[in-house]
Amino acid sequence: MAQRPGFPIKLNTQAKAQPVKAPANKPASSNPQGLGLDSSAVRQRMVQKLAAQGLKDPVVLQAMGAVERHRFVESALVNQAYEDTSLPIGLGQTISKPNVVARMIELLREGANGKLGRVLEIGTGCGYQAAVLSHVASEVYSIERLKGLHEKARANLRHFRLANVHLLFGDGMLGYPKGAPYAAIISAAGGETLPQAWLDQLALGGRLVAPTVTANGQQALMVVDKTDQGFKQSVLEAVHFVPLKSGIS
Ligand code: SAH
Fold this sequence. Notes:
By secondary structure, the protein is of the alpha/beta class.
């Protein structure tokens, strides 16, 4: 059986409960990154698995290796943070599997040279994917329709101080015209059709990746390229995302 990753996630709490006398020349806080260092090895194993599953883009793999996914899940789920599984984040929503996050961002970056420009993410959730996107794009605009999750993402992301991530509370089906046009649009929630606003707000040469219900009633990943000859759409593999809903709550 594969061993579950374990690292001292409760380091700070434990330190508080049992004050450690620090030698004068070595303050107790001299290793504040102990947790980060330990989880980095577990993350590298996750990245190796992603590569073994066929993910290739080194920029995406590097971003996946850099973002501490365990900081985005409830403490009871921390030991599962680097497994290839989706996890509940509250209010009936889930953080996507690492494989799916990496796959979608790889699709967004296909053929792109260097960093992506402005990216719009629909469905901030806990903020994990926004953090990964911040490593591959110049600016990330991320919209969430549930106030509770919007606030949770803000709290989760504070630690990372990502100056290029802009969290917005609103209905992502309307996009975010103020940031348009976008080099890329990515949705973490699946609708019946692609909202017109997304197509309008996509830059010429830009790409949209979103789960959408297809003719057989199942969700699949949809990739849309906006070209000067119109939109080019491809339907890729089946996926299971939470539903795209209109309005805010
Ligand atoms: N990228 C997220 C995944 C969250 S799940 C993460 O890394 O955690 C998808 C999210 O989409 C949910 O939080 C859900 O509330 C949100 N969502 C659904 N419809 C939406 C809409 N119209 N506008 C904005 N967010 C929406």
